[in-house]
Prior knowledge:
Organism: Streptomyces boluensis
Number of domains: 1
Largest sheet: 3 strands, antiparallel
Strand order of the largest sheet: 2-1-3
InterPro entries: DUF1059
Shape: globular
Number of strands: 3
Structural class: alpha+beta
Number of helices: 2
Helix content: 40-55%
Order of helices and strands: EEHHE
Strand content: 15-25%
Pfam family, one: DUF1059
Protein name: DUF1059 domain-containing protein
Amino acid sequence: MRKTADCREFPSEMNCTLTISGEEEEVVRAASEHAASVHGHTDNPELRTMVRESLKDAIPEHA
């Protein structure tokens, strides 16, 4: 099952609209790197756990 991380679900001064979708490990890695490089968070195991817990199942486009 593909997973999705959506910045719009978290308060941000930048009003970030990025959505990342893919296999779980890809999304955790990309979303954590994005959170660090764009939002100033520290990319560490705690952040990756929070990202993983916030993922949602992606809705198939051809459903």
